[in-house]
Amino acid sequence: MPFIQVSGRRLFCLVVFVVVLLPLRGQTIKGVVTDERQGEAIPFANVVLDGTRFGVATDLNGFFLLNQMPAGTYTIRIRYVGYEEYTKQITVEKGKTTVHNIALKPASTTLNTVVVKDNRVEERKVQTHVSVEKITATQIQQMPSIGGQADLAQYLQVLPGINSTGDQGGQLYIRGGSMIQNLCLLDGMIIYNPFHSIGLYSVFETDLIQNADVYSGGFGAQYGGRLSSVMDITTRDGNKKRHSGKIALNTFGANLMAEGPLKKGRDGSPTSVTYLLSAKNSYLSRSSTLLYKGVEGGLPFDYLDLYGKLCINSGSGSKVNFFGFRFDDSVSHYRGLSDYHWKNWGAGCNFTLVTGLSSVAEGHVAYSDYRINLDDASGLEKYSRINGFNMGFDLTTYFGANRLKYGVAMEGYATDYQFYNSYGVHSQQEEHTNNLGAYAAYKIQAGKWLIDPGVRLMYYISLGTPSLEPRIQAKFNCSDRFRLKLAGGRYSQIFLDARSDNDIVNLFNGFLTGSGALYKPSTFKGSPVNNCVQKAWHAIAGAEFDLSRHLTLNAEAYFKYFNQLLNSNRNKMFDSSDPAYQAGGPYEKPEYLLTDFIIEQGKAYGADFSLCYDIDWLYLWATYSLGWVTRTDELSTYTPHYDRRHTINILATVRLGQAHQWEFSGRWSFGSGYPYTQTQGMYENLTFAGGILTDYTTVNGDYGVAYAELYGGRLPNYHRLDLSLKRKFSLGKRSLLELNLGATNVYNRNNIFYFDRLTFKRVDQLPILVSGGLTLKW
Question: Cα(first)–Cα(last) distance of the chain, in Å?
Answer without folding.
Answer: 70
